[in-house]
Design brief:
The complex is a heterotetramer of chains A (258), B (94), C (114) and D (614).
Chain B: H1 13-36, H2 40-60, H3 64-93
Helix pairs in contact in B: 1-2, 2-3
Chain C: H1 4-22, H2 26-47, H3 70-101, H4 106-113
Helix pairs in contact in C: 1-2, 2-3
Chain D: H1 4-21, H2 23-26, H3 30-55, E1 60-63, E2 78-81, H4 83-102, H5 112-130, H6 134-152, H7 159-190, H8 195-205, H9 213-229, H10 237-245, H11 248-278, H12 282-304, H13 309-329, H14 333-364, H15 369-372, H16 380-393, H17 400-414, H18 419-444, H19 454-462, H20 476-493, H21 498-510, H22 512-521, H23 541-562, H24 577-586, H25 591-613
Antiparallel strand pairs in D: 1-2
Helix pairs in contact in D: 1-3, 1-5, 3-4, 3-5, 4-5, 4-11, 4-14, 4-20, 5-6, 6-7, 6-11, 7-8, 7-9, 7-10, 7-25, 8-11, 8-22, 9-11, 9-25, 10-13, 11-13, 11-14, 12-13, 12-18, 13-14, 13-18, 14-16, 14-17, 14-20, 14-21, 16-18, 16-20, 17-20, 18-23
The chains are: A mainly alpha (258), B mainly alpha (94), C mainly alpha (114), D mainly alpha (614).
Chain lengths: 258, 94, 114, 614
């Protein structure tokens, strides 16, 4: 199909699909009228059942914890996939950062950026830690915390050089952290199985005060492992991409003309 | 269901409606802008703004958890990854 | 307001798909795919919304306060992670494609592949 | 509490994490790494055999974290292992084990990545089969997808794999987002994610006896992603691009189970959620029959004109996917039972064919049928396995494929649709003929090499060897798996009372009320009842004649193709240029076109459903 023809064919099909979709949406109860019962039931029982006051975290790490296990492994598989696709191949060598930078219009990191980035690293670390460890009380959790933690490591890159970043996150260590995070989550589930309970049963004491940091049993623990996994996965993905930015290829089509 | 409970987080219903409507319009415009921006680097910036708009909309939908994720992922991490990818591609186009 | 958010959902989906279909650059295409997926976030959260209800946090409000649906929020969180994972993988493919083909135009990729 | 279903998903995940964590240790110890991964696959397969046997008399329902439903409202996620779902998961585990055994000596420089991704892929496949929650289905669908995209691009130094992986990932991700939209729609109506609960809820809502727009739209959106995964025309375009370039051991899984899993998902979604609400009307059968038969014929035609071995096998998978959808569309227990057995037989036979192609690639470094003509004469064992498997693909009696096909035909006859038998036989002859043509030409040097198609030769030359050393011989670890798989396909076909058992399982699969009571109330239904009653599962003389006729027809077609230039009648026959052009315009490889076709296809199916069901 030529681009022009394709556009018109698509518009015709999309008009039909949009009409069809709207026809279905018209059958909903209407915006602002969530009918329940799933969410209402959970809102009613979650606090007394799990001692977590953040019900979304209770759903994520308890009622639908198995979904979250799958979700963590999606990220895990994606990080492994990125590493697979971007692995160093024969005929590729690493150029020095300056060498590569000379060929780009991206200006080198200025001192101001460096200082701001350094200043932000500490708070980002603290905030990531806070988010990952307060899943049960406030709108936060392992995922958001993990992403912010990963951002802290990326800030280190911005502040310094790639080499420093690499020193902070050697692939083997990141791999290990990621494995502990993802595997730890699964292991918590299996611990329940070993006690004769259902997979991912919350077998730890729930604490006495709803919303306290130590409350809600495995929710906090799972959130912590998720934070580890997510942070490591993102650091891995970003470092693979950075690694690519520094790779030179000796030969091949579309190679560098310099 | 009648909702008479007033909490510290209750926003007057009329105001909330207006807020949501405005944000929905902005999100629709943002999506269109992302698609119609054909210059890659500029598109990443538009995408980042779009992520921000989505995050605000989710806040108006009473979903602070999702707001936080959308902010960290949609407005920061994904644009960063995309920029890294573009840097790689552009360095080779030199 | 009863149907308006859903019209926006369809609009985002349609615009995103339009971008995918007319895209001549893989990076652009990936970003349009992100737009397509964002329609599912808006739909999920709109479906679980309840007018006048609070967010599902009961730290300082009583448990019987009417709250919006927490389940769709958990689903959207999963959806966001999926987005990040798929986008990272697609980006890796695009980087590799650019290395092998020297272009990111989907139509030229096919011609060059042979 | 039976923990086996969940362990079958968690074990591969834990092993994937463990292998990644011990990466530095395992990188240099290939034996240990391969052994651990293969053992995991084998253990999972064994666990799933046990689950299948246990589930024969009632679904095994497992509630995660112990959250049982209260008053018909599910709070948590459940696994519901029935004989068909557990059996399909078991098939997936067996094929993963076979593929990893084959790749023991196949990849030369393999890091831990391959094993990790294979294990997460396995977990995704098994979780998808067993789950009883519609959002959980989406999660495992995505895990399966992400692992598969990455594995397709396992050789990123080449052009084909990257392009194939991109088309694969974009089309299938799009499908997943459409499915998620459908899930959100149905959730907005029912406030439930458990499939049984949704089914009960929408059946109650339906007052006029006809489904309303929301139910129809949600149904189509949910199955959209599954139909894309299931390679149904016009959503099949990604498949050949991905299959042709993925590492050969992986093609086994893509063709053998991943596509079939998409169609299993369609059947699962229909029978546990939408069946009652949509009313099992003739229009449902009509729409899916049309899609299935179209797919069967289009796939067969593409298959027969192909010269690139892996693409040829990929198109034959498209054709078979059409046959599977046809069997599901009949809505009868015998039709579903036939499909289930056909899926098993096809998976084993197709896996053997792909592994033999892998051996050819390993020994001769090419997948171009024209070039290979007569060059694989010395690969005697491979030739025998390939030829036997090719006859299996052509539905020769004794093979499981024959049993499955006969039951689909019998059931179609029972519903007054005997004419579809003719279409199915035609597509089987075309596919079998294409594969037998390869067998005769490549392994025995019969006839003349087929004419070179420049486009296909270019595509085939892209496919270079996946191995670098030891090419002078075929290791046992490569030839034993395909031989065992072919024998297994025969063994299943001659099992006594197979039909009765599988039909009983299919009947249980189709009894939505029994499924609801098992999931939501922990009930047990001793005698499930489907919409259509069970039928006789014996083979009539006509079945056997049809089976032998199909195989013979395929053989004659293959010989005709090989000796075309020496036969007076056929000499003048050449593939028409206009047809070739049309095919290339359809299968263009351009992702923009593929997405356009998806939108058009959905709009057309949606229009048909809106008109016929409402």
């Amino acid at each position: 199909m030529t681009p022009g023809l394709r556009r018109w064919v698509f518009l015709a099909g999309m008009a039909g699909l949009a009409a069809f979709y709207l026809w279905g949406l018209h059958g909903l109860p209407g915006f602002g009228r969530y009918p329940g019962p799933y969410g209402d039931l959970i809102n009613r029982i979650a606090v007394s059942q799990t001692n977590a006051t953040g019900v979304v975290s209770a759903v994520n790490f308890e009622y639908r914890g198995f979904d979250t296990l799958g979700e963590e492994f999606i990220l895990f598989a994606a990080a492994t996939g990125v590493a697979t696709v971007l692995r160093r191949l024969r005929g590729e060598r690493e150029g020095s950062a300056e060498d590569e930078a000379a060929g780009r219009d991206v200006p080198p990191t200025s001192d101001a950026v460096r200082q701001v980035a350094l200043l932000l690293t500490g708070p980002a670390l603290v905030m990531g830690w806070y988010l990952a460890s307060h899943a049960q009380t406030s709108p936060s959790g392992g995922f958001q915390g993990g992403v912010v933690l990963a951002t802290a490591f990326i800030l280190i890159y911005l502040a310094g050089q790639f080499l420093a970043f690499e020193r902070f996150s050697p692939v083997d260590v990141t791999d290990a952290v990621e494995a502990v995070g993802a595997g730890g989550f699964a292991a918590i589930g299996l611990a329940g199985v070993a006690m004769g309970l259902s997979f991912l049963t919350n077998f730890l004491g729930l604490g006495t005060i709803p919303g306290a940091v130590s409350s809600s049993g495995t929710i906090a623990l799972i959130s912590f492992f998720v934070g580890m996994e997510v942070a490591a996965a993102f650091v891995l993905i970003v470092s693979e991409m950075l690694d690519q930015a520094l790779l030179l290829r000796a030969t091949g089509p579309g190679g560098r003309s310099r | 269901m009648t909702l008479a409970v007033v909490t510290p987080y209750t926003v007057p219903a009329g105001l909330m409606d207006v807020l949501q409507a405005v944000l929905l319009v902005l999100v629709a415009l943002g999506a269109t802008a992302v698609v119609l921006t054909r210059a890659p680097v500029r598109q990443v910036i538009v995408l980042s703004v779009y992520g921000l708009l989505l995050a605000l909309l989710f806040l108006a939908f009473q979903a602070p958890d999702v707001t936080l994720s959308e902010l960290t992922v949609g407005a920061i991490v994904l644009p960063l990854l995309l920029l890294l990818g573009l840097a790689k591609v552009r360095s080779r186009e030199k | 307001m009863h149907i308006f958010p859903f019209i926006v959902v369809v609009w985002i989906l349609a615009v995103g798909l339009y971008g995918v279909v007319t895209s001549r650059h893989l990076m652009h295409l990936i970003m349009c795919l992100i737009v397509v997926q964002s329609s599912t976030y808006v739909l999920l959260l709109a479906v679980g919304y309840r007018t006048g209800a609070v967010a599902p946090y009961f730290f300082d409000v009583p448990v019987h306060t009417p709250a919006v649906d927490p389940v769709v929020q958990a689903l959207t969180l999963t959806d966001v992670v999926v987005e990040a994972a798929v986008t990272a993988l697609l980006l890796a493919f695009a980087i590799q494609a650019h290395k092998r083909f020297g272009t990111l135009d989907p139509q030229q990729l096919v011609q060059l592949k042979g | 509490m039976n923990q086996l279903p969940v362990l079958a998903v968690v074990l591969p995940l834990i092993m994937a994490a463990l292998i990644t964590g011990l990466n530095p240790l395992l990188r240099s110890r290939r034996r240990l790494l391969d052994g651990a991964a293969i053992a995991t696959g084998a253990v999972v397969a064994a666990m799933l055999v046990a689950v299948t046997v246990m589930a024969a008399h009632g679904d095994e329902v497992y509630w995660f974290a112990g959250f049982r439903p209260s008053h018909g409202v599910a709070i948590g996620i459940d696994f519901t292992a029935g004989p068909i779902s557990a059996g399909l998961a078991c098939l997936a585990a067996v094929l993963v084990t076979a593929a990893m055994t084959f790749s023991w000596r196949y990849f030369d420089r393999v890091a831990t990545y391959f094993h990790v991704l294979m294990l997460t892929f396995l977990a995704g496949l098994v979780g998808f089969c067993l789950t009883g929650d519609i959002f959980d289905l989406f999660v495992w669908f995505e895990l399966m997808g992400v692992s598969a995209y990455a594995l397709t691009a396992y050789r990123p130094e080449e052009r084909g794999p990257i392009q194939g992986a991109l088309n694969f990932a974009i089309t299938n991700s799009l499908g997943a987002y459409l499915s998620l939209s459908g899930i959100a729609l149905i959730y907005g109506r029912t406030g439930a994610l458990n499939m049984a609960q949704i089914g009960a809820s929408i059946a109650r809502h339906d007052r006029a006896g006809r489904p309303d727009g929301l139910v129809i739209v949600a149904f189509l959106l949910i199955i959209a992603g599954l139909l894309i995964k299931g390679a149904i025309v016009p959503f099949q375009l990604w498949l050949a691009d991905a299959h042709a370039v993925a590492p050969t051991p992986l093609c086994v899984l893509f063709s053998g189970v991943m596509v079939e899993l998409g169609l299993y998902g369609v059947a699962r979604v229909y029978w546990s959620m939408f069946g009652t609400a949509l009313g099992h009307r003739g229009a449902i059968t009509g729409i899916f029959l049309a899609l299935g038969l179209l797919t069967a014929v289009v796939g067969a035609v593409f298959c027969f004109r192909e010269r690139h071995l892996k693409r040829l096998l990929a198109f034959s998978t498209v054709s078979h996917a059409g046959i599977f959808l046809t069997g599901i569309a009949l809505l009868t227990p015998l039709g579903l039972a036939g499909t289930a057995v056909y899926v098993a037989g096809h998976a084993l036979v197709k896996a053997a064919l792909f592994l033999c192609t892998g051996i050819i690639l390993h020994r001769l470094g090419s997948v171009n049928e024209t070039w290979l003509h007569g060059r694989a004469r010395h690969l005697r064992a491979t030739g025998v396995v390939f030829t036997v498997a090719a006859f299996g693909l052509a539905d020769l009696p004794l093979f499981a494929t024959f049993a499955g096909k006969s039951w689909i035909d019998a059931s179609a006859g029972g519903r007054g649709l005997a004419w579809i038998t003719a279409v199915l036989i035609l597509s089987s002859i075309l596919v079998g003929g294409a594969v037998l043509r390869v067998a005769g030409g490549v392994f025995y040097g019969l006839g003349d090499p087929p004419a070179e198609d420049p486009q296909m030769a270019r595509e085939a030359s892209e496919e270079t060897s996946e191995t670098t050393s030891g090419r002078s011989r075929t290791p046992m670890s490569m030839i034993v798996p395909p031989a065992v798989l072919v024998l297994a396909a025969i063994a299943i076909g001659v099992l006594p009372d197979l039909g009765t058992a599988v039909q009983a399982a299919a009947l249980r699969f189709q009894d939505q009320a029994a499924y609801n009571s098992a999931v939501l109330a922990g009930g047990h239904t001793a005698h499930p009842a489907g919409v259509f009653p069970p039928e006789a599962t014996g083979f009539t003389a006509a079945d056997i004649v049809a089976g032998i006729g199909t195989a013979a027809g395929a053989a004659i077609l293959a010989l005709g193709a090989l000796y075309r230039r020496r036969l007076p009648v056929l000499r003048g026959l050449r593939p028409r240029g206009s047809l070739t052009g049309l095919v290339q315009a359809f299968q263009s490889g351009v992702i923009n076109d593929y997405v356009t076709w998806i939108v058009i296809g959905l709009a057309c199916i949606g229009g048909a459903m809106a008109l016929a069901l409402r």
